[in-house]
Input
Amino acid sequence: MDSRPQPLTGAGVAQHVLIVDNDRDAARAARAALEQTGFMVSVVKSVAGAMAWLEKNGLPHLAVVDIALPGEAGLEMCRQIQELADLPVIVATALGEPGTVVDTLREVAEDYIVKPFHPPELAARVERVLRRMGNYAYSMAPITRIDGRMEIDFVHQKAIIDGRPVVLTRTETKLLHVVMRRARRPVTIDYLLRRIWPFDEVFEDRLRVHVHRLRHKIEPDPAAPSYLITQRGVGYSFLPAA
Output
């Protein structure tokens, strides 16, 4: 895989799914079904393998995680991923307890599938989640190149502005990830609040503070933003250079 920063590309970007599963047969079947549907797929067998993969490749577009990895490792990894960005996760589980599924959906996942599953069903669920979340407008890479001035490193929570690293907070990184996923389209205030603070009751004023701080880190002129644009009465949009 080419690890060089890739530009925003709009339509036609192949979406990349990371499967984290130590069940060889299940992972092989899932990979075949997803690749047949048109996804790029990578498979790792452990949490350590997944974190190493993220360090090398950056964020995938979606992760399928078996939460029945040893201990609570799968669930804990989902929590760690959500610290990095607003990455959609589908959990695969052989557990039959309804409470486990409900808690997982509330905390870390967009959807779940019970093992053993029918591989085409997984592919359909991945497609549905990604349609709902919004199609990425950029190629997956360790560092996402926005234009000649700015790049974003989601895994390490930083922007690179004119070659200079700028540290981002977890909230700023997640905010960028949400608006970049829907680049060039308005993202509503309500959607941003739900994606960034899913378990907190927060209001628009809190979001404005983080938008203000992020603009001061990434914008050439924070008073006249050229990346993170206010859409009055709606929310915000991310407008990379054409």
